[in-house]
Write a structure and sequence with these properties.
Elements lengths: L1 H9 L2 H30 L9 H20 L9 H18 L4 H18 L7 H13 L8 E4 H4 L7 H7 L12 H11 L11 E6 L2 H8 L14 E8 L11 H19 L3 E6 L4 H11 L5 E10 L4 E4 L7 H4 L4
Antiparallel strand pairs: 1-6, 2-3, 3-5, 4-5
Bound molecules: flavin mononucleotide.
Flavin mononucleotide (FMN) binds next to α3 and β4.
């Protein structure tokens, strides 16, 4: 503090603030470098599959894509063959290094068995090499097939006014829509989502609502994860955070935390009001991010956190089972 006020006196104000800005840029780069180094080293992106966690992350993402494929409103028999082949390879690599006891591995095997069972009724739909690969794999790990969930609208909304435990367990990502969402009810859901906590109550979350079918299709074409159901959405929500509300470099990730908390509260609020919803990642390349900004007039100072496809809930539909790991797995006592 003393040095700062001394420098202010010795240097002209202009020079002082110039140097301060240079220093801020230096600190900013250092902070992002600190984050980037950790991400490069520990995510699966740069040094793939060299830890148990990296392999499990890959296996879960792959079996989940198969679960989704099974639940699609217009399921394509023979879908995801390359994906299935990769999943089996990753499962075998996992067994080789970490054995067969892991709950995620076991669920992956069950999903492979469900895929196999589904395709048994359509003998010519799978490539014969893949068929043999699946058969050989399952002969070594004879678990029962998993079963994705069949639901009715009534069952899905049964716990909307139940205590939180039941209510929260009844929310599932819906990948099948039928009918429209009332604008007034959507407004109430967004209002309820505003009860989410935010840093110093700064409330930097923003919600864009796209109504126009053509615009929804254009936005979804920039997103990787809505194939097979996105076209059924009645509206598309875009959750952004306004960076103007963040104060220092140490808050560089706060927008994502605030946006994540707001988004979950919004998912619960949508469920409460009987609106079907599926969160859609915005892990977009720069070009796609710029495309969405242009399409929806999202200003530079806002970052996109998540898209949410919403629509009416069909009479009957399927849900991905998306099982959760055992709670002991995620608790670390110190
Ligand atoms: C940040 C985030 C991104 C997601 N992106 C997608 C997506 O692109 N496509 C999709 O179908 N589901 C997506 N989901 C939904 C997850 O697959 C789903 O939440 C998970 O499987 C758990 O299932 P549940 O929501 O039914 O409990 C996303 C979820 C989150 C939290």
């Amino acid at each position: 503090m003393f040095i700062k006020s001394l420098l202010k006196k010795v240097l002209s104000y202009k020079l002082f603030y110039f140097l301060q800005k240079i220093n801020f840029i230096r600190i900013t780069y250092k902070a992002f470098k600190y984050d980037a180094k950790r991400y490069l080293k520990h995510s699966n992106a740069f040094f793939p599959f060299n830890t148990k966690g990296k392999l499990l992350g890959q296996i879960i993402a792959e079996y989940h894509a198969i679960e989704k494929g099974i639940c699609m409103p217009e399921r394509r028999i023979g879908f995801g063959q390359k994906l299935m082949s990769n999943l089996i390879d990753h499962c075998l690599l996992f067994v080789q290094n970490y054995g067969t006891n892991d709950e995620n591995f076991i669920h992956a095997v069950k999903v492979i068995a469900e895929y196999d069972l589904l395709h048994k009724a359509y003998p010519d739909k799978l490539d014969s090499t893949l068929e043999k690969k699946i058969e050989k794999f399952l002969s070594n790990f004879p678990y029962d097939a998993s079963s994705q969930l069949q639901m009715t609208r009534e069952e899905y909304l049964k716990y909307n006014n139940a205590p939180f435990d039941k209510f929260s367990q009844s929310r599932h990502s819906l990948r099948n829509f039928s009918g429209n969402v009332d604008e007034n009810i959507l407004f109430q859901a967004i209002q309820l989502a505003q009860t989410a906590p935010s840093s110093c109550n700064r409330q930097p979350s923003r919600v864009y609502i796209i109504n126009e079918k053509e615009k929804i299709a254009q936005a979804l074409a920039l997103q990787n994860g809505n194939r097979g159901f996105g076209h059924l959405a009645d509206k598309l929500l875009i959750i952004t955070e306004d960076l103007n509300y963040f104060l220092s470099i140490s808050e560089r990730n706060e927008a994502y935390i605030n946006g994540g908390m707001f988004s979950l509260n919004l998912l619960y609020a949508l469920h409460f009001y009987g609106i079907g919803a599926c969160p859609l990642n915005w892990c977009a390349e720069q070009e796609n991010d710029m495309g969405l900004r242009k399409l929806c007039s999202i200003p530079e100072n806002e970052i996109v956190i998540l898209l949410i496809a919403i629509g009416g809930i069909p009479e009957k539909f399927m849900l991905a089972s998306s099982p959760r790991v055992h709670t002991h797995t995620i608790i670390k006592k110190i």
